[in-house]
Structure prediction request, 637 residues.
Amino acid sequence: MHFELTKEQQMIKEMVRDFAEKEIAPYASKWDEEAIFPIETFKKMGELGLFGIPFPEQYGGSGGDTISYAIAVEEIGRACGGTGLSYAAAVSLGASPIYYFGTEEQKEKWLVPMAKGETFGSFGLTEPNAGSDAGGTQTRAFLDGDEYVINGEKCWITNAGYARQVIVTAVTGKDERGKNIISAFIVPTDAPGFTINCHYDKMGVRASNTCELILQDVRVPKENILGDPKKGFKQFLYTLDGGRISIAALAVGIAQAAFEKAIQYAKERKQFGQPIAKFQAIQFKLADMAMQLELARNMVYKAAWLKDQGKPFTKEAAYAKLFASETGFHICNQAIQIHGGYGYMKEYGVERHLRDMKLMEIGEGTSEIQRLVIARQLGC
Amino acid sequence: MNIFVLMKRTFDTEEKIVIQNGKVSEEGAEFIINPYDEYAIEEAIQVRDQHGGEVTVVTIGNEDAEKELRTALAMGADKAVLINIEDDVENRDQYTTAKVLAEYLKDKEADLILAGNVAIDGGSGQVGPRVAELLGIPYVTTITKLEIDGTNVKAVRDVEGDEEVIETSLPLLVTAQQGLNEPRYPSLPGIMKAKKKPLEELELDDLDLEEDDVEAKTKTIEIFLPPKKEAGKILQGDIADQVKELVSLLHTEAKVI
Prediction:
């Protein structure tokens, strides 16, 4: 057992950090303030191959591993939480399901351009009445000749306003126990009857694009069904397991940014004749923050490593996501506290981290759902 | 075109320098490609893409330098060479480095050799010119522009903010100044491909050199940090008195005149 990144992983970390510091961080507050989706920056990230990290070369990727991908998410998130979220969602939710479950034709058609960063893809699971209870999906699909006809509504779908296609989950029938059978469909965003509205005014991750989807008699060819028609539910659970690693990595990145600002400020800010970092009250905060960050990052790496080894990682991904987001929220809160009144001012750029971080406790499974996932893995 | 880049692995620009037992401590420090060498690598890749040929990046260091060499390969260099003299040569200076590099390069028929204008750690700026001297080829330092037409070369030098245009011919050694180009980020496919590109490791023996041949010509007497910057002093009173006081302070306190 060893805890060192490989040379490639180190190089990826340096490259992404370098890129994020020059091309993302200087604009992060503007993108947050004005809710700008930085499409030009995403194009540059695409050219560098960032959207293809965990996919093999034959599908337009760069054949990296999940750890490298988590490192990239952390570094982008350190510069801008919203950009990090859109990046993580594009790879983990937009592209990965097609890589996991798609046919060769589907991969060729939809995955390759996403891995190359030429197109965006989204994942439409959440509905106004089906959040944590994803089994309660109300969107319906039925077969009509050679086409599926889909009707329903989805909400809070990341990147859909820029997506070429959305993977939409819909109920296609009932099993022998009377439970909904859920299937997943690849739906092109230009399909007639498919409306995408992106008018949410979010608390944080404001550089990220978030939309509502309305599907009215949207017809897709039969071959657009993704994976096993009867296992849509299992498939998105697996997809979310992977997505959780990236949300955890994003939480670490956001917390890292908040921590760095806090420690720098604590060393510069003088009260009672000395830098506040000389006071134990502040030192203890910083010590806790540094420790929590390190532990969260280690958990992210472990979950990613398990996934790369082809071992079960459901529980560890939930640990990572839950721990990184909850301690991350605490870290961002303490970072503001250390800044005092200045921290409450937008100008200092610390409050943004807390607003961005809040989503980490909600998106891709709330903290409560993470605890449920863990408890089930424990056999409860 | 046969292109070589001389690269050095240096401290990250943001590292704090710590001195321990009379030496700069490398413990826990982050390392990078010397920023001026990055311009040299970028220029080498651009020249190759325009004129064809091959880019070989050469460094002297230990196995830790492999990461920086792989980064250069990830940017687009074709081959890398690590000359490891760690165990063979105890006292090293610019002479050592230049001698080893020149010995390596002498039978390589290099058309163009690029280096950084200066390394941000030692800061001597000597290695490039010394290598050119040893190889008996012309060199142009601190260039901000390079144009190659056949074997004719036009280079623009940065001379303390002014520009000097120099015409010369290949084979040639140039050292890169900021402004020469904008170094690219190594792309993800580049990083993954770099793993498979050739990286040759050489030792002093492989170059038919003995330790005595490359022994340092200089001796480091002492290494110390610059004194901590004190708050400035504002003199008061008549101008004439102030001047008097200033001169006396420069004599007695600062001891610079």
About this structure: The first strand of chain A starts at residue 120 and ends at 124. Chain A has a mean pLDDT of 96.
